[in-house]
């Protein structure tokens, strides 16, 4: 299940509109080509669209920016097509598509794809569609097509009860993880139930209920596949470094002989309007109340949809929005605000959600929201507000095209194709956006956002009333003939894995660096692929520079940079950036603080002027310090609602101790937030935000000469000052082996196993990355296959290194069912010991090494990705050619190197086990493992007195 993007959901996302297949009985001529119209500032996407005789729609896009190809398959089916009593079935089936097919036994496809360097490999289910996608090196396109075709054509041949039972366990763990243990997850599900009647296909959440997931039968799975997973109910986008003629031949080879499925009848559903207000109060394990308001609105791409997307941006699209200025900034009764026009095929929903600041009530929030809605309906927005919203939505649309795969270019074309029948709808989409006026937005608000036609749900602190979570029954005995219900004729050649083409040359961005006279480093990468520029001003001081008594100071300082300068107030900064259609953010990590900017290239100069001002001339107004203090205290309360964040905090505290700056989260602690003064913030900025400690990293559609002129104009007057030394201190790791944080009523346990490991400049970095890929970094890693795929204990478990200037942590993390907490820890420790005891065999080594090596280009798809990698070279004092040299270093990693890395950094005896869950359910399980001393910590990760 995948969430929708925040901005312009109706403009970016597509839903089923019943468009028929192009062409007739034979292969059709291309129905596409370059987009029919073009607009200034909007890229033209050249594509070919044709239809195979079996009905599969094929869309090809040639894009040579990187040696990558995205393969994106959409099946036009989702919960909108589910049978009564089987809520969540479309999503469960999505999982089944990864369980193996006739020529690819369970798990093999994932291993082959990861070993080939695939990235952005996953699937997702939305109400009107299910998609499957991979990004692969261009020489592995045939492998990706082989895998997707085998799933489309030969899944029923091997479907069995064991696979179904396993995925039922996994999906129910996913429900616990993403709905029941997620703050406000139960509240949002109740909202959905209130919007739609009992028999409406949108009423249930996409993931469904425990009972319905468990009630699915193997016969239901077979029937669903036969009914909806034929090629005539699918479309495939192949975008990237391709030869179109050769790609057409490959598509015909792998998909052409698959049989057409039965004709799919599109859902004929009438969504009854809401004629009187509906209200609910839903308790959940949260500290801050939240108000949701939702309306039924026009289906995607129908009149009013785009206007409501603009209205959502005006109401709650960042700091320049009305609800933010009124409720968060002005009255300070809200912690955060959000609004979204969630466009779907049968009916869309317009949603406003506002979280209260501590001490304020849902009634206060509702009255304040109502006042802003009334003003929008009665007086409309200003033309300036509409232009501001349009500009930011347009930038978000263009930036969504930076990635080839995932939710990027290929997915957008499939969205447009399903909605409109035209993959090249981008220009028309943006043209519609640009035509929207203030009167249009006011008319849409008056028509659709009336009080009588809404649902209002208040999520409040309390004990959630969770739906039944029945135990999984023993699976029925397998019947003879299971797995023999094939649809397509056997073709022996399909059992042969295709050979890779010639390996593409890895030309990874290196960047060029120069310095201004004041010591500011400027790093530039020219990327003209799209009219976008990403910039990041980074300083080499993060939480490692926090004084012991003030954890969180670096993050607090970064947050204040955007809250006023000598010449711009906080609202002026927000309005100016939004008017330019740009996005700006400030943040802090363990080793750096930064201000990041994304802009259309035409507006970059003006946007950079704002970034330069906030970095060089922050005013730290007393009123803004107090506003942000209250905001950070609210964030701290929200952090305490999330078990996985609590586990991360407790792990940091246990690993580093209370005197080390890494022993806390970026927010710090409540006493520290309350104690920070304006002088502390100004002092941190004065010491650390100096040119010699900073770099301006820019990637995008701007030449070096133009950047040099802008950098000189905006930063030459920044006065140089001594660079501060950074001495974070010595970690004081707890003597305990088990750390418990009690969460009464939790159905899951958030686990972290952690130990101090390596610094970023370690020469062991390539071996560590390969070791981690095999152990817990990949979907097919040892721990994920064990706990998720084999035992069904978890929705997923992973591992990874955080590399700092000093040794950072190695982390194993995941949430497991409460009743298998002890068993899960035992398995994780067993897997760690196995990595130490025995070297990887040749096949596993090759798979893990190639997964790291061949997927490297995917780390440089977007300008922000490129900028982050170049910034990393500055932060950790790595050479600019670090990434161009990394492929050879990864290729040289041996099994002995991996085992040596495991012995040095993955000693099970040194792993501290952190468990956040209901103590009375999990303590005894952990005691049986006899790991050693146990300590209790609070929800901020600190030792309890």
Report the β-strand fraction as a percent range. Answer: 15-25%
Mean pLDDT: 93
- Number of structural domains: 4
Q: How helix-rich are the residues, as a percent range?
A: 25-40%
- What distance separates the N and C termini? 41 Å
Cα-based radius of gyration, to the nearest Å: 27 Å
Largest sheet: 6 strands, mixed
CATH superfamily of the largest domain: Metalloenzyme, LuxS/M16 peptidase-like
Tell me what the CATH architecture of the largest domain is. 2-Layer Sandwich
What's the CATH C level of the largest domain? Alpha Beta
User: Number of helix segments?
Assistant: 32
> How would you sum up the global shape?
globular
CATH fold descriptor of the largest domain: Cytochrome Bc1 Complex, Chain A, domain 1
Quickly give the structural class: alpha+beta
**Poorly predicted runs:** 1-36
Lateral arrangement of strands in the main beta sheet: 1-2-6-3-5-4
**Secondary structure: number of strands:** 23
């Amino acid at each position: 299940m995948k969430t929708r993007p925040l901005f312009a959901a109706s403009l970016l996302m597509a839903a089923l509109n019943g468009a028929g297949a192009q062409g007739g009985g034979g292969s059709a001529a291309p129905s596409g080509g370059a987009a029919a119209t073009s607009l200034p500032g909007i890229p033209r996407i050249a594509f070919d669209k044709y239809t195979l005789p079996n009905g599969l729609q094929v869309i090809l896009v040639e894009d040579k920016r990187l040696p990558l190809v995205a393969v994106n398959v959409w099946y036009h089916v989702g919960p909108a097509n589910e049978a009564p009593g089987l809520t969540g079935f479309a999503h469960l089936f999505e999982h089944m598509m990864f369980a193996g097919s006739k020529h690819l036994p369970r798990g093999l496809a994932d291993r082959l794809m990861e070993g080939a360097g695939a990235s952005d490999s996953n699937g997702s289910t939305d109400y009107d569609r299910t998609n499957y996608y991979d990004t692969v090196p261009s020489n592995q396109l045939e492998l990706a097509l082989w895998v997707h075709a085998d799933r489309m054509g030969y899944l029923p041949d091997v479907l069995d009860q064991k696979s179904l039972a396993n995925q039922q366990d996994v999906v129910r763990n996913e429900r616990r993880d993403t709905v029941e243990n997620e703050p406000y997850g139960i509240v949002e599900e109740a909202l959905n139930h209130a919007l739609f009647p009992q028999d409406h296909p949108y009423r249930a959440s996409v993931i469904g209920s425990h009972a319905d997931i468990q009630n699915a039968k193997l016969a239901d799975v077979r029937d669903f596949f036969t009914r909806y997973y034929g090629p005539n109910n699918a479309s495939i986008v192949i975008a990237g470094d391709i030869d179109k003629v050769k790609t057409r031949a490959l598509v015909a080879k792998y998909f052409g002989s698959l049989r057409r499925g039965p004709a799919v009848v599109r859902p004929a559903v009438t969504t009854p309007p809401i004629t009187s207000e509906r209200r609910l109060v839903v308790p959940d394990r949260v500290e801050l109340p939240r108000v949701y308001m939702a309306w039924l609105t026009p289906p995607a791409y129908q009149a009013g949809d785009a206007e409501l997307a603009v209205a959502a941006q005006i109401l709650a699209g960042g700091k320049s929005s009305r609800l933010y200025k009124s409720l968060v900034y002005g009255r300070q009764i809200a912690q955060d605000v959000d609004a979204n026009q969630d466009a779907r095929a049968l009916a869309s929903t317009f949603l406003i959600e506002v979280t209260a600041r501590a001490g304020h009530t849902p009634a206060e929030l509702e009255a304040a929201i109502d006042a802003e809605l009334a003003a929008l309906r009665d007086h409309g927005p200003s033309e300036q507000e509409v232009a501001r919203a349009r500009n930011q939505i347009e930038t978000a649309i263009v930036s969504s095209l930076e990635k080839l795969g995932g939710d990027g270019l290929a997915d957008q074309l499939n969205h447009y194709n399903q909605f409109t029948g035209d993959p090249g709808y981008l220009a028309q989409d943006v043209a519609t956006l640009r035509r929207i006026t203030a009167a249009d937005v006011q008319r849409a608000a008056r028509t659709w956002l009336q009080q009588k036609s809404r649902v209002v749900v208040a999520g409040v602190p309390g004990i959630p009333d969770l739906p039944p979570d029945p135990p999984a029954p023993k699976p029925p005995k397998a019947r003879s003939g299971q797995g023999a219900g094939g649809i397509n004729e056997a073709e022996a050649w399909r059992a042969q894995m295709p050979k890779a083409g010639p390996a593409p040359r890895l030309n990874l961005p290196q960047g060029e660096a120069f310095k201004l006279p004041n010591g500011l480093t400027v790093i530039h990468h020219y990327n003209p692929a799209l009219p976008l520029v990403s910039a990041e001003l980074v300083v080499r001081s993060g939480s490692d520079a926090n004084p012991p008594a003030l954890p969180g100071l670096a993050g607090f300082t970064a947050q204040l940079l955007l809250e006023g300068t000598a010449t711009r107030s906080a609202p002026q900064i927000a309005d100016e950036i939004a008017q330019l259609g740009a996005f700006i953010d400030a943040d802090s990590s363990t080793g750096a603080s930064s201000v990041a900017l994304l802009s259309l290239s035409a507006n970059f100069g003006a946007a950079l002027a704002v970034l330069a001002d906030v970095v060089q001339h922050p005013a730290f107004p007393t009123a803004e310090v107090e506003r942000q203090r209250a905001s950070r205290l609210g964030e701290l309360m929200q952090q305490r609602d999330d078990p996985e964040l609590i586990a991360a905090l407790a792990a940091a505290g246990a690993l580093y101790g209370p005197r080390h700056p890494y022993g806390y989260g970026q927010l710090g602690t409540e006493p520290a937030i309350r104690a920070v003064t304006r002088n502390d913030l100004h002092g941190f900025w004065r010491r650390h935000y100096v040119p010699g400690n900073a770099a301006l990293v820019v990637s995008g559609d701007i030449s070096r000469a133009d950047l040099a002129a802008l950098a000189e104009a905006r930063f030459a007057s920044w006065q140089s000052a001594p660079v501060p030394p950074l001495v974070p201190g010595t970690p004081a790791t707890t003597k305990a082996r088990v750390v418990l944080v009690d969460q009464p009523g939790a159905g899951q346990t958030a686990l972290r196993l952690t130990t101090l490991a390596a610094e970023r400049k370690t020469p062991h970095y390539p071996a560590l990355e390969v070791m981690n890929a095999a152990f817990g970094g990949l979907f097919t890693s040892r721990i994920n296959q064990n706990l998720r795929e084999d035992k069904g204990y978890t929705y997923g478990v992973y591992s990874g290194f955080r590399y700092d200037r000093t040794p950072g942590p190695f982390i194993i993390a995941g949430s497991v069912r409460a009743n298998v907490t002890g068993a899960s820890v035992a398995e994780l420790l067993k897997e760690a010991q196995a990595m130490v005891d025995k070297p990887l065999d040749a096949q596993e080594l090759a798979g893990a090494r190639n997964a790291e090596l061949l997927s490297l280009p995917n780390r440089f798809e977007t300008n922000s990705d490129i900028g982050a990698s170049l910034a990393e070279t500055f932060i950790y004092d790595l050479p600019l050619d670090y990434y161009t040299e990394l492929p050879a270093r990864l290729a040289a990693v041996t099994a002995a190197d991996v085992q040596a890395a495991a012995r040095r950094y993955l000693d099970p005896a040194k792993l501290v086990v952190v468990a956040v869950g209901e103590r009375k359910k999990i303590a005894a399980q952990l005691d049986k493992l006899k790991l050693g001393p146990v300590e209790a910590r609070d929800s901020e990760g600190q030792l309890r007195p």
